[in-house]
């Protein structure tokens, strides 16, 4: 019985052994006489928040990234991660408008970035801000909705706080949490009545 080592020719250098006849792929002989077959990695992709496909690896400012890179330029995107959508033949990110986007970190662990709790009532969703203080209580995760009505049982978070972590209680500064996407929200994940809480 022949053992064949398959090399995945992508950003991750993985090998595995396979029994049986070699598949139809380029074949070479390794240093120990083993048969080496180049094969593509299955389509495990990281997508952006607008469903574009990230390109890995990508090089930016001399650093080769195998997963989404932290946004380090501050502003409202602080804490987010981004990826290249277009690279040249040497994997260099082509730094032009529209050639990058922010990663959808909650959709796929292949993105390599943390899944953040976000709101569901905004388009696009806003990131929850933790901790936030509301009515004297400091919340480290989404807070239960306690005002009754159709939203009873759901959870909400602040999306805007002052320098003392106090929720700024104005329209647009809060939203219901996306509990079905992220376990980091701190609320139960169960669906019913057409929405998840």
Automatic annotation (TrEMBL):
Q: Which UniProt keywords apply?
A: Disulfide bond, Repeat, Signal
Q: Which PROSITE patterns match?
A: FN2_2
Q: Does the keyword Repeat apply?
A: yes
Instruction: Please indicate which superkingdom the organism of origin belongs to.
Output: Eukaryota
Keyword Electron transport part of the UniProt annotation: no
InterPro entries per UniProt? FN_type2_dom, FN_type2_sf, Kringle-like
**Signal peptide limits:** 1-17
Residue ranges annotated for the Fibronectin type-II domain, each copy included: 123-179
Protein name per Swiss-Prot or TrEMBL: Matrix metallopeptidase 2
């Amino acid at each position: 019985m022949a053992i064949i080592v398959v090399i995945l020719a992508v950003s991750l250098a993985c090998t595995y052994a396979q029994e049986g006849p070699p598949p139809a792929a380029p074949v070479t002989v390794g240093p120990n006489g083993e048969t080496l077959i180049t094969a593509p990695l299955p389509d495990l992709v990281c997508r952006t928040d607008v469903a574009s496909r990230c390109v890995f690896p990508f090089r930016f400012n001399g650093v080769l990234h195998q997963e989404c890179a932290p946004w380090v330029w501050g502003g409202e995107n602080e804490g987010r991660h981004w990826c290249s959508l277009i690279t040249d033949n040497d994997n260099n990110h082509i730094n032009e408008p529209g050639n990058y986007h922010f990663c959808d970190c909650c959709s796929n662990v292949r993105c390599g970035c943390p899944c953040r709790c976000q709101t569901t009532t905004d388009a696009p969703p806003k990131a929850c801000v933790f901790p936030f203080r509301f009515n004297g209580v400091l919340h480290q995760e989404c807070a239960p909705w306690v005002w009754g009505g159709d939203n009873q049982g759901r959870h909400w978070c602040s999306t805007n706080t002052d320098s003392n972590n106090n929720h700024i209680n104005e329209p647009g500064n809060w939203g219901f949490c996306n509990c079905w996407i992220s376990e980091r929200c701190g609320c139960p994940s169960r669906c019913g009545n057409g929405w998840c809480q």
